Amino acid sequence: MLSRICIPYLVCLCSLGAFVLMDDGNVLTPLQVFMCLCLFRLLLPLFLKLHTFSTLLKQTKQSFCRLEEFLIAENLDIKNCHPHPSQDSPSRFPQHCGRCNNKNHHETERELEQLPAYKGIAGALGQYLRAFGFHWVILTMLAQLGVCIVCVAQDGLLFVWTAEAKEVQGLEEWKELRNSRLSVCTLLGLLQALLVCWAAYCLNCGSLRASQSLQCELLSSVLHLPLSVHLTIDPPHLLRTFTQNMYVIEEHLPEQLHTWGSCLLQIMASILLITYIIPVFSLTLCPLTFLFLTVLHSRRSVSPHMREELCLNHLLQDRQNLQVQHKSIDLERWALLRLDIVYTISLFLISLALLDSTDSLDAGIIALALAYGFNVREAMHRFTETSAETAKNVQMVQRICVYSKLEKEAEWTGGCRAPPGWPQKGELEFIHYGTEEGAISPAFRGLSFSICKGEKVGVVSREKPETDSLISCLFRAVEASCGAVLIDGVNIASVGLHTLRSHLHLIPQVPVLFSGSLRANMDPFAWCSDAEVWQVLELCQLKEKAQQLQGQLLHPIQPSSTAHSFFSSGQKRLLCLVRALLGKARLLLVEEAPLSGDSESEHLLQQLVLTLLPECTVLWLSQNPNSVMHTDRVLVLDAGHAVEFDSPSILIQQGTLFRQLLQESQRGNV
């Protein structure tokens, strides 16, 4: 934006100074001013591209050096240029990457790419303009329109000045006319500068508002996605959306829209002015407009065919990258050639019309029409290039909007309000509960059982995904397709997710300490005092361990910090128990300890749960029947059904699946 403001005035000052100094008396005449502005229109595109000239020269020189080094190499082999890559070549990537073999990733990527297609570019552009703010859009358009009108007014003033200067007789009258016209030109120049600055201000304010709005919408949509969708989205794709796509929307899209609007106004102003000067030119507008739109439509229809559905490792191959770039350059040259044909035809028709009207038109008005005719070519080229770039970058908005169309999880704080102090008993009941098979859990079919207050129940299954699925159902990471889950008589489907998840406690198999202080890991909602925290740490035999830390309760926990490795896996599970005790848990889920876990800490954990949480309902989730022999009852899951539910002593005496699993476990230990 700074270059677009400074470079025009630099060109204007240089051209004015050159023409003034060329005259012997340093007298500025209307003809010289008119010629200055004509040269300004011709020099402006060159000055805008001057800063890239040195870079292009360096790149060209480097390319020639590399090409020469390759051609004169002694080990040049024609086999290296074979179009089909060798299978044993170390520089080639494998034909199939691991991510492409993942069906869920492939389907989700396809869904993310194809979901917004029904909206098209116009729909995505409308979404961006709504985020931009219609008031900023209107103000920016008015500012650009004002700049265009002032520019035409300056040229018209010079034409009038040139015509009036021919009728001036004396020197004093000529000086008076010169001073008055220069004053008006100065005021118009200041007005144009103010309008340019105002357009830049409105554009920056609107683009910042759009970026912030789209970023917040994207973040909110991603945070509200269910866990099943998160596990099927490719992390690099999501990371590119937050980084690369947002960068294009923040940096490139506003400037391209500004350039697109300026070029469109410049083309329309040129056509209207030429039509006003030469009314017969209006007869050629329809066929010329048809040719221009045909070229734009042809480029837009050819571009999608260049996007080949290739795996990421294929796109990394130099040969295919060069092919895509070569096709893009060919397409650009193809479009520019046809635009030059349209421009040449237009200029030819303008010249014919002016030749036919030389008797009725002044020389100044003819020069004005030709000057605007010359400007159309550069404006058409920039308009076409900017249209293609804008259409490509608007797709970034489409990819962001696609996340708002994906299925969201339930409301965090909505639904009916749970009774005060819920849950007070911890009674758990599954009533004909069923789920659909998904990416993170197998399906449950008619699951029905009831657990009383304070009961300690072991949940055993052949496969860990079934016990994991039970946790997902209780935390509503997976929604029910039929039936219900009741906690103290309240259907968890009617409770907000934050309310539900804040009252459920879990001791995972692989515990994780989150970034923050040690106290925040144990009491994340700050419900308890420091004295209560120390008391619970002492009950869990972790007080001395916490006192050894430099900051004690306020010691920072980071993934790479020493405090993160200061606690063993078993002690981290004890910290999860501390969190449950401080939260006055009424329903606790305990996963089976890992095989490499600390047996002493696990035995301590089991004893503390039984002694410190006598009224809490506890579910011990395991694949090892030996680890749930201390529970009141055992629930055996198989193929999504609750096949057995009774005390361990009774299940052992009968010929049950639990007894079979116990025997298999004992044979495995032997």
UniProtKB/TrEMBL annotation:
Record's InterPro entries?
ABC1_TM_dom, ABC1_TM_sf, ABC_transporter-like_ATP-bd, ABC_transporter-like_CS, ABC_transporter_C-like, P-loop_NTPase
Q: Molecular function terms in GO for this entry?
A: ABC-type transporter activity; ATP binding; ATP hydrolysis activity
Q: Where is the ABC transmembrane type-1 domain?
A: 187-296
Give any Gene Ontology cellular component: membrane
Every ABC transporter domain range: 428-664
Q: Which PANTHER family match?
A: ATP-BINDING CASSETTE SUB-FAMILY C, MULTIDRUG RESISTANCE-ASSOCIATED PROTEIN 1-LIKE
Q: What is this protein called?
A: ATP-binding cassette, sub-family C (CFTR/MRP), member 13
Taxonomic source organism: Pygocentrus nattereri (Red-bellied piranha)
